[in-house]
Amino acid sequence: MKLIAFVGTSGSGKSHRALWVARENNLDYIIDDGLLIHENTIIAGKSAKKAPTKISSVKVALFYEEEHRNSIKKAISEHKPKGILVLGTSDGMVDRIASVLELGEYDQRIYIEDVASPYEIEQAKKTRIDQGKHVIPVPAMQLKKQFSGYFLDPLQLFRRKGKGQFQNIGEKSVVRPTFSYIGNYTISDYAIYQLVNYNIVIMPQMEKVTRFRTSNSPDGLYIDMDVIMVFGYNLLEAVKTARDQIIKELDRFAGFNVNAFNINVKSLVFKKGTPEF
Predict the structure, then answer these.
(1) In Å, what is the CA distance from 92 to each residue of 87, 97, 98, 136, 221?
(2) Residue 31: enclosing H or E segment and its boundaries?
(3) What is the tens place of the pLDDT at every residue in 75-109?
(4) In the chain, which segments carry CATH 3.40.50?
């Protein structure tokens, strides 16, 4: 298995260039900030950028937890990569990752200065400091489970093939981890209810929401609610439409991953605005 280290200081643009560096060196897997990535897909691990503090983020990136470490080793054993690109902020960090994951010796070390100009590195660091943005080399959809409720900004990654021609080589996502914010942000259950209720009452098939419960767990948002519907419509189709529209709006609103969504039809009205029966 070919093993290459990609080294650069924090915020210098490693993850931004990881897909390109991997493809240029015929490496099919990437280890970055606690994740094992293959062709824009998270195979195993958990993201260090989800950690609540910088210290815990470092521990995740270095695979301190046995369960986390073993999940990566098992995935590597099962998938048998032809080559892995290991990202780290220093030679010591990539050496430790190779040691704890029992990957062996590196065939080559690439430094951020080898693939980015001083100006590009400085701009990347400025973005990290000023905006707290971190790049993960996988599409936003791949991150929804790990980053439920986080703001995700999907970016397409291209390389030039010729004059006026570009090849799409993948997608990466920009996230703002908890520890990068000055202070904390929260999204209240009531704000979620208001969004859900609005999408219900504007539907001609729906009268109103009579009960609403939600909880946001690490694997996604859970919603359970009762509604009153209008007689004369196909109830099953109306409920499916409501569910799909609300899930879409929750995604657009704050990147929520909806893990379970129960809609219970409690009663009917003859037309909107009339008592139920």
Answers:
(1) 11, 9, 10, 22, 39
(2) strand 29-32
(3) 999 999 999 999 998 999 999 999 999 999 999 99
(4) 2-180
Report DSSP state, residue 145: T
Task: With H, G, I as helix, E, B as strand and everything else as coil, classify residue 160.
Answer: strand
pLDDT digits (tens, 9 = 90+) for 199-220: 999 999 999 999 999 887 655 7
Non-local CB neighbours of 55 within 8 Å, separated by 6+ positions: none
Dihedral pair phi/psi, residue 154, rounded to 5°: -75, 140
User: What is the per-residue burial (b if ≥16 Cβ within 10 Å, else e) of 132-163?
Assistant: bbbbbbbbbebbbebbbbbebeeeebeeeeee
Q: What is the pTM of this model?
A: 0.55
CATH architecture of 189-269: 2-Layer Sandwich (3.30)
- Tokens in use for 14? 């490693």
How are strands ordered across the β-sheet holding 152-162? Answer: 134-136, 165-175, 152-162
Coil, helix or strand for 40?
coil
Fold of 2-180: Rossmann fold (3.40.50)
Residue spans of beta strands (DSSP E) within 41-185: 41-45, 83-88, 108-111, 134-136, 152-162, 165-175
Whole-Å CA distances, 200 to 60, 205, 220, 241: 41, 9, 21, 10
CATH 3.30.70.1350-classified regions of the chain: 189-269
